[in-house]
Design brief:
Helix content is 60%, strand content 11%. The chain is an alpha/beta fold. It has three domains: 3-275 and 378-413, no CATH class; 458-489 and 528-716, Rossmann fold; 494-523, no CATH class. Helix 19 links the parallel strand 8 and strand 9. Helix 8 crosses helix 13 (256-269) and helix 18 packs across helix 19 (545-563). The two termini are 30 Å apart. The model is unreliable at 307-322 and 384-403 (pLDDT under 50).
Length: 717
């Protein structure tokens, strides 16, 4: 296949690759791991990649582990693989920034202090009377240790501190790594800003003003602007303008303590929005308590609709006398005293129950609001873990990481596309070869046997090692042939003649030559109009040293043809090795190791030829000759390497010799020339078959060089 067409098909395969195929490969995992390892100064020990499309979390880190969600919504929103990869690298850079700079122990300490009713690291200093009033009002809840209200403070403070922390670490990572890390972080940041609603949209959804203000803070922190061109609530914008200097200063502070102090200060500045929420919750709690007795009364009536008052006991019983009246007076007196005590207890219990009911209702309302607040806050700002001890700058050079990450994805995509395309090409080649085999009209007798084409597509590690063993021996053979090969190869290449007095092209290198020889002429190389086929006997009798030298000879011929740009076919053949009564039951295996359209796996297939079964040479010879006759080249040369006469079912002795002579004669008449190398004990039988084309190979080590010399002589004729 031509290189231009091959590159075009690779580009087509690259376009078909999906994120699931690319991002879940070991190669891409290794890429992200190497990036994470480098940008953390070699301290990152574990990188976890997972795919959860339903999660709103893009990544997280905890302790010595950094995790990236390959199926996160931000990455999925980009269209191309390159943009998706940049997004994942940006998420990795963000989480590694937390790994390096975020102090999780300090954040935990801050949360514990606030829930326990104290400011951390210290109480904020009010800058005006309004903030002083806000501090006094908030301290009331801190002194009470009101968990419900403090939870709202903490949720807001956690969001603000994370927002400020994200600003700091992203600016640091973008400054340290201005290549793919910065590009990915900024891409993800812009996409998050695009998804944040406008001010009018938030007002129309009837969100609480605290949630709206937090969304505005996120917009400003991520993009330094707010999408409020169609907004109407200018009070929120005015509040945000007051917060902007605090946010900007805290986002640049190198110390985490400064960001927590800024968070406390912001809580004072937005106290009025907390007050609105608390008042609304108290109001809802009171309304619910007022409606509760009426609801209980209605429910009681539904449960006992036919209940009637009991008649007094006196009406049911008659008067039993004066003694009974005295007893009744005594009983009434005791009952009156007990009723008085019971009323006091009931009044106290009622107040306690009323207080407890009020607190329960208030807590329920606060929990409900807290849940709504969590849902309304932007999902792009979330808590991330980190080391217990804050990581300082590692002094990492960004050049290696940036250079490798920019090109590594393209390399991965190319390798994946190439692997897919190679499999398709191998399948196409096999189907084409199988079709050609079925279309070849075999001679009588050979048309009855079954023919199976074999072509290895997967190359094992063992086969690669085996090829390396042959490569070492092959270098020695090529070294001996170098003097004979160089003139042939030199004539193949084009050359340019310089310093000519006449010509059509000006030689710019010698344009100022005083002699006036300023022309040049391009001499085209000599193109060899020849094709070669190598047929190797793979029967079991070829095992051992014979097979090794046959493989070396085939590799030597193959390499020479490749360097000389000669189309070459290398084919091994053998039968199934069983004795059959009917020819239809016998199978001839044709191993197509290298076809005229060569590929990079040809050498491995040639080195992997293994002896097995017997040899029906007539079938293989006619197949190789027919393949040569299909070629457009004028000269056609067929090398046959065998160790003896044919030996198969109903195919041997004199009959097999006559069959091979007949096939050889037909192929010779059509322009196919033979060179048969006999490396076994049946040299006389092979000589009778191939006559003047016979080569007696007494020393097997001379086989590769001898066959190559024969090819050189044939070319020079």
């Amino acid at each position: 296949m031509k290189k231009a067409l091959y590159r075009k098909r690779i580009c087509a395969e690259k376009e078909k690759l999906t994120p699931e195929k690319v991002f879940h490969t070991p190669q891409y995992r290794d890429l992200l791991t190497s990036i994470g390892h480098e940008i953390t100064g070699g301290k990152l020990t574990t990188l976890r990649l997972y795919d959860d499309k339903n999660s709103g979390i893009a990544g997280w880190n905890q302790g010595e582990t950094v995790a990236v969600n390959l199926g996160n919504q931000i990455t999925s929103s980009f269209l191309t693989l390159e943009l998706k990869s940049d997004s994942l690298i940006g998420i990795l850079g963000h989480e590694c920034g937390h790994y390096r700079y975020t102090d999780s122990a300090l954040r935990k300490r801050y949360a514990e202090h606030m829930l326990n009713g104290s400011w951390y690291p210290k109480e904020p200093v009010p800058e005006n009377a309004q903030e002083k009033e806000a501090l006094d009002a908030m301290n009331v809840y801190f002194e009470r240790k009101d968990k419900a209200i403090l939870s709202i403070f903490l949720q807001t403070a956690s969001y603000l501190s994370n927002l400020l922390n994200d600003m700091y670490i992203e600016e640091k990572m973008c400054a340290l790594f201005p290549g793919s890390i910065r590009r990915g972080i900024l891409m993800n940041r812009d996409r998050n800003v695009e998804w944040l609603p406008t001010l009018r949209e938030m007002l129309e959804t009837e969100k609480d003003r605290l949630s709206i203000l937090m969304n505005l803070c996120a917009q400003y922190a991520l993009s330094s602007r707010v999408n409020a061109w169609d907004g109407a609530d200018y009070e929120l914008i005015d509040t945000l303008k007051l917060l902007m200097p605090v946010i900007d200063e805290a986002g640049k502070a190198a110390d985490d303590m400064e960001r927590y102090l800024a968070t406390n200060h912001i809580l004072l500045m937005i106290w009025k929005y907390f007050a609105e929420i608390i008042d609304e919750i108290e109001k809802n709690t009171t309304e619910n308590e007022e409606q509760k007795p009426e609801q209980e009364e209605r429910e009681g009536q539904k449960e006992n609709p036919n209940e009637s008052e009991e008649e007094p006991e006196e009406e049911k019983q008659g008067n039993t006398g004066s003694q009974t009246e005295q007893n009744e007076d005594k009983i009434r007196k005791e009952d009156t005293e007990q009723e008085s005590e019971t009323e006091d207890k009931t009044e106290r219990n009622g107040k306690d129950q009323e207080t407890e009911s009020h607190e329960n209702g208030r807590t329920a309302e606060l929990q409900k609001f807290l849940q709504q607040l969590c849902e309304n806050l932007p999902k792009c700002v979330r808590e991330s873990g980190g080391f217990e001890d804050k990581q300082n700058e590692c002094g990492i050079s960004a050049s290696e990481t940036e250079a490798s990450s920019d090109n590594a994805l393209q390399k991965i995509l190319y390798e994946m596309a190439k692997e897919t395309l190679d499999k398709k090409i191998q399948k196409e080649i096999f189907e084409h070869l199988q079709k050609e085999l079925m279309e070849i009209p075999f001679e009588e007798g050979h048309d009855l046997v079954q023919k199976k084409l074999c072509r290895k597509t997967e190359i094992s590690d063992f086969l690669k090692l085996l090829t390396e063993k042959y490569e070492g021996q092959l270098k020695q053979v090529k070294k001996r042939l170098r003097l004979k090969l160089l003139p042939i190869l030199k004539n193949q290449k084009g050359r340019t003649e310089h310093k000519l007095f006449l010509g059509r092209r000006v030689d710019l290198r010698n344009i100022a030559a005083p002699s006036g020889a300023v022309f040049k002429k391009q001499q085209p190389g000599k193109k060899l109009d020849i094709c070669v086929a190598v047929l190797v006997d793979n029967s079991f009798s070829m095992c051992g040293e014979r097979m090794d030298h046959a493989i070396l000879a085939a590799l030597c011929l193959y390499d020479f043809c490749m360097e000389s740009e000669i189309p070459v076919l290398v084919c091994g053949h053998h039968t199934d090795g069983y004795r059959h009564e009917n020819l239809k039951d016998e199978t001839v295996y044709l191993h197509c190791c290298a076809d005229f359209e060569t590929d990079e796996k040809d050498r491995f297939r040639i080195a992997g030829m293994q002896p097995y079964g017997s040899n029906r040479d007539g079938t293989a010879l006619w197949y190789a000759g027919s393949r040569l006759l299909e070629r457009p080249e004028k000269q056609k040369l067929l090398f046959v390497i065998s160790d003896g006469a044919p030996n198969a079912n109903q195919y041997g002795g004199t009959g097999a010799k006559r069959d091979l002579q007949k096939i050889r004669k037909k192929l010779l008449q059509q322009g196919v020339f033979f060179q048969a190398a006999a490396i076994g004990s049946d040299k006389e039988a092979i000589q009778e078959i191939y006559e003047e084309s016979f080569l007696d190979i007494t020393d097997l080590e001379q086989l590769p060089a001898l066959l190559t010399k024969k090819l050189l002589r044939f070319i020079r004729r």
